[in-house]
Amino acid sequence: MSGDAKIFDQVYQMNSLLLGTGRLVLYFTWTLSLMPIQWAGLTLGCRWVETLPPFYHRWCCRILGFRVRMIGTPTLERPVLFAANHVSYTDITILGSLIPGSFIAKAEVAKWPFFGWLAKLQRTVFVDRQIRSAAIQRDAICERLIVGDALILFPEGTSGDGNRPLPFKTALFGAAEKKGNTGAVVVQPVSLAYTRLNGIPIGRSLRPFFSWYGAIGLLPHLWSMLGLGTVEVVVQFHPPTFFADCGSRKALAGYCHARITGGMVGALFGRPQPMPKPPGLAANEQFATSAPKAAA
Question: Are 95 and 70 in contact (CB under 8 A)?
Answer without folding.
Answer: no
